[in-house]
Amino acid sequence: MTHWSAGVCDGVYAAGVRDVVYVPDNPLSHVLARFERSFRDVSLILAMREEEAFGIAAGLYLGGRRPAVMLQSSGLGNSINALATLVVPYRIPMLIVVSMRGDEGEWNSAQVPMGRAVPGILAAIGVVSDTIDACQTVSDGVRHQQIVSDTVRGTALSSFETKIPRACLLPKRLTAP
Amino acid sequence: MTRLEATRIVAAFAGDAAVVASLGHPAYDLFAAGDRPRNFYTWGSMGLASSIGLGLALAQPALRVIVLDGDGSLLMNLGSLATIGLLQPPNLTVIVMDNEEYGTTGGQATPTAKGADLAAAARAMRIETAVTVRTEDELIARLNASGNAGLSAERPTIIVAKVIESRPTVKPPNDCVAMKVRFMAALGCPEC
Predict the structure, then answer these.
(1) In whole angstroms, what is the distance from residue B119 CA to residue B159 CA?
(2) CATH number of the domain located at residue range(s) B3-186 in this protein
(3) What number is the ipTM of this complex?
(4) How would you write chain A as a 3-class SS string?
(5) Superfamily of domain A4-175, CATH level 4
(6) Under an 8 A CB cutoff, do A52 and B80 touch?
(7) Best of B42, B51, B87, B88 to mutate (most A CBs within 10 Å, chain A)
(8) Cβ-based contacts of A92 with chain B (< 8 Å)
(9) What pLDDT tens digit does each residue of chain A (177 aa) get?
(10) C-alpha torsion A24→A30→A32→A37, nearest 10
(11) What is the CA radius of gyration of chain A?
């Protein structure tokens, strides 16, 4: 059975990422569980807070690894200083996977302001972001997984090749059960 | 002991270790103690020096990683103690230069001035080696005991060094990208 989370795992792995620093999030739990089950050489590193996750990921990169950070859009609000004063000015590439809240289908009003601000904030501090096209992905299961995988992989490879941190946004329409 | 004196002791001890310094005065003192390609000076991201050091220690298990943190900085990222305690990287040493003030921003007192105990906080997060040192001899003894030089340590080390603010007079270069490139090349993992 295909699932968007399999596409994320495939894309992350295909880009050579073996270290995933994360702060827990409900949709991302599917990704983390799949990594644990099927990608035993991927290290999953829990951070207490999102800005800490970016610090750990920066250290991993300095040590020659290709890190990814996974977090919820609300937690991106905890990360701006780490991004704007460390990751961006030192040009430390990494894949940033953002599980979106506040977009189409959101029920929690407290998630809306940050969620809708995410692309603008990222652009303002110099982090490029790509959004998985949920309209394309939901219609066909197999293609769906492939599109997710291709987007995540492409985001990651662009980051590592350009030395610019880059985010892949997972819209709620993609990750909703 | 002043922070600069303590930093000189750590620098003399560092050998081939990578040294990551927290922004402001800890980084300035590391530069004053002796610039080297394996020094990484942060110019922002207050609180994250120990997190950067943790990531580096995980990436390079055969590399000794020393972090020069500040009390104010560590207080901004206390969760880092929990993460280090969880992962127990044996090649990581965090030295907290505890001057009991925010030295870089004008000397406002931190909670450690009233007795907040960062070594106790670290021990509570399962970093059992955490101790406070107050003299140069104690710092040297603790560094020697930590197995830093020979990678013989089995657990992460935290040393809270009570220091007197020493008003740095020099700063490292602030070309962040150039410093990153130099640091990674020195560690044997050059950017491609």
Answers:
(1) 7
(2) 3.40.50.970
(3) 0.97
(4) CCCHHHHHHHHHHHCCCCEEEECCCCCHHHHHHHHHHHCCCCEEEECCCHHHHHHHHHHHHHCCCCEEEEEEHHHHCCCHHHHHHHHCCCCCCCEEEEECCCCCCCCCHHHHHHHHHHHHHHHHHCCEEEECCHHHHCCCHHHHHHHHHHHHHHHHHHHHHHCCCEEEEECHHHHCC
(5) Thiamin diphosphate (ThDP)-binding fold, Pyr/PP domains (3.40.50.970)
(6) yes
(7) B51
(8) 180
(9) 568 999 999 999 999 999 999 999 999 999 999 999 999 999 999 999 999 999 999 999 999 999 999 999 999 999 999 999 999 999 999 999 999 999 999 999 999 999 999 999 999 999 999 999 877 666 666 678 899 999 999 999 999 999 999 999 999 999 987
(10) 150
(11) 15
pTM score > 0.90 for this model?
A: yes
Tokens found for residue B88? 């127990």
CB atoms < 10 A from the CB of B28, how many?
24
- Please tell me the distance from the alpha carbon of residue A67 to that of residue A64, in angstroms, as a whole number: 9
Give A-chain residues touching B75 at CB under 8 angstroms. none
State the DSSP string of B24-64: THHHHHHHHH---TTEEE-SS-TT-HHHHHHHHHHH-TTS-
- Inter-chain residue contact A46 with B53, CB threshold 8 Å: no
Across A123-132, A136-145, B61-70, B143-152, least confident range: B143-152
In the numeric block, which tokens belong to residue A51? Answer: 């800005």
Report residue A151 as tokens: 């987007």
Task: Indicate the domain borders of chain B.
Answer: 3-186
Residues B87 and B122 sit within 8 Å (Cβ to Cβ): no
Look up residue A64 and give its amino acid: G
DSSP H stretches of helix in B102-191: 118-124, 136-145, 176-186
Mention every residue, 6+ apart, whose C-beta is less than 8 A from residue A139.
none
Mean pLDDT of chain B: 95
Q: How far apart are CA B75 and CA A28, in angstroms?
A: 29
Give CA torsion, residues B150, B156, B162, B167, to 10 deg.
70
Tokens of B119: 């070594």
